[in-house]
Amino acid sequence: MNFSKRLFDILFALLILPLVALIAGVVLIALALTQGRPFFYAAERMKTPGEGFRLWKFRTMTVVDRDAGVSGGDKAARITPVGRILRRTRLDELPQLWNILRGDISFVGPRPPLREYVERFPEVYREVLKSRPGVTGLASIHYHRHEEWLLARCATPAETDRVYCTRCITAKARLDLIYARHASVCFDLRLIGRTIARVLR
What we know:
The protein is mostly helical.
């Protein structure tokens, strides 16, 4: 990550921190009243092909002993009522401001992948993860809804994995690499603005 992008991430994160803290407080109250602890969900994601980190979100699913893979239709029954709202508005990702301040991720970049997919598709992620992962990005804006639609139709973990591997990974990678070729603070601001606009709609 270059210096200007890192400086932008820190300054912008500090600027919006009071607002994020206020909204996060409301979310925590809603979670406490409706689904209880744990309030947060942390899972390993990759910021380089060989380096992982713990990505934080508000919990949107019922807790199970073992969980793996991306979320598809096979996990839909586990999403809580409040969790559906958080996912639709992307408020479940507010705790990732901590990951941004730590330098794990940026505001804009490819979504950080699970280790299993980095290991299974090393050629793809060797290129994608040359950019620091982000909360939003070109692929998130242009492919996220379609990915959700594809995975929501999957009835088993095996089907979810197959569809994600064959339909989603390479499609998102193409968009992530387009972003990498045009990355700049101005482009990041445009993508952040488009993300906010989509959430408000």
